[in-house]
Specification:
CATH class of the largest domain: Alpha Beta
Helix content: 40-55%
Order of helices and strands: EHEHEHEHEHHHH
CATH architecture of the largest domain: 3-Layer(aba) Sandwich
Strand order of the largest sheet: 2-1-3-4-5
Length: about 220
């Protein structure tokens, strides 16, 4: 397999040497500011982007986050900076156009290496696929739950129809609710649906205008 391509946006030569040593197994490309990064991205899509905040020519890395996310919606971004206030770190990690990680300078090379490995493995396209899979599972669970509720309701209504068909007395709503372990209003809705479908005579439950009618 070809090594992952990392775009490093860093104007400090000593800091970039740290990246060269720590991330030597990856294919590194370096630019000095956000403008150069945008040009590089349009030529070749990286697998991960490492972004400093204070850059060459007075540019600020976080100002470019929206454009980076527009061009690289599925590429993880790691901000590495010693010039960010706490609230700026929170802002960088929040919202739809966010970075995935924010590390302080001087950077811990072990943490940097772990972060890059995790980001390449868990973020980006892998993260999107996982979210879609979770959404599909959620939809399936919801569908099964709705199907189960529908089946339970039809089974209960059929049983109620059988019970009332054998009795000449008006139904005892509370007794039915206890037997089927549902609320009184659920039994009332069942009766109304059975009458609406013509499976029970209207006189079985004439209190149409009293959802909580007397037994």
């Amino acid at each position: 397999m070809k090594p992952a391509k990392l775009l490093i946006i860093e104007d400090d030569d000593l800091q970039y040497e740290i990246y060269e040593d720590t991330l030597a197994k990856y294919a590194l490309t370096r630019v000095h500011n956000g403008t150069e990064a945008l040009a590089a991205i349009r030529k070749e899509t990286p697998n991960l982007l490492i972004l400093d905040h204070v850059l060459a020519d007075g540019e600020l890395g976080l100002d470019f986050l929206p454009e980076f996310k527009e061009l690289l919606p599925f590429v993880p971004i790691v901000v590495v900076s010693g010039a960010l206030e706490v609230h700026q770190r929170f802002e960088a990690l929040q919202g739809p156009r966010r970075a995935h990680y924010c590390l302080p300078k001087p950077v811990d090379i072990h943490e940097l290496r772990r972060t890059v490995e995790t980001a390449l493995k868990e973020c980006g396209e892998t993260e999107v696929v996982r979210q879609f899979e979770a959404l599909e599972r959620s939809r399936r669970v919801d569908a099964l739950e709705l199907f189960s509720r529908s089946t339970d309701r039809l089974s209960r209504q059929n049983r109620i129809r059988e019970m009332l068909g054998k009795s000449k007395e008006r139904p005892n709503i509370s007794a039915l609710a206890r037997e089927f372990r549902v609320a009184r209003r659920t039994i009332i809705r069942d009766l109304q649906e059975l009458i609406r479908r013509g499976q029970l005579k209207p006189e079985v439950y004439p209190e149409w205008d009293k959802p909580e009618g007397e037994e």
